[in-house]
Give the backbone structure.
Amino acid sequence: MYESCYIESTPRNDALVYMAAAEVAAYLNELADVAPGPREIGFTGGEPFLNRDLAAMLEDVMSRGHRALVLTNATRPMRLRETDLLKLRARHGARLMLRVSLDHYSSAIHEAERGGGSWAPAIDGLRWLSRNGFHATVAGRHSVGESESRARAGYAGMFAAEGLPLGVDPSDLVLFPEIDPEADVSEITDACWGILGVQPASMMCATSRMVVKRNGAGRPAVVACTLLPYAPEFEMGFSLADALGEVSLNHPNCARFCVLGGASCGH
């Protein structure tokens, strides 16, 4: 995601590098032993379509019976892979899902986050996905002080105005909270679950892991969460088996985004 991204994605951040198809295949092989059965395998970035191995990775994932979720800005890098995408859709249908990042339902706020001229290509990419029968959804945000219902209504109006046949329920439109890295947040304690009426098992890190490859590293590593790829204390080892343990919710983003923010990066 080339975005005002939660994981500090910018053209100048080279802390993480592309994984190769063979590296992904090794984790898929291990997954069959550690957690057999169909899963949802997500690809994020940066912009995943900049990785030339992405099509091969997606084919590998879906040929094993898993679903594939690609988080993309739907602009030029994706459009350069149209032929690959059409072949993948023809073979695997709705097991391939693309989630397009639109930071707001207004072009002005979206472009304030992503830069001038970023709105029209994203909308055009969404139109191409819809026109060609892809399972496409949108990831957006609701601004500070804006209710979720108002944000969903705003997106619904924009989709209608742009001629996009997209829904706005939570399975079609994922809305994330704004994160202020300077804001103080409460620590998470056992009492929070009862106070907030949520369950620890509903946190994404209870059932998911992220694999990253650090610049200069000889092999990928498994980390607890997509929000914490740089925090060494949340690195859990090199294999999925190493990463089966519990995760302590002791990072500010755990409170800001997941527990108090009520958000999840999953489908």
In short: Residues 21-34 form the longest helix (14 residues). The mean pLDDT is 89. The radius of gyration is 18 Å.
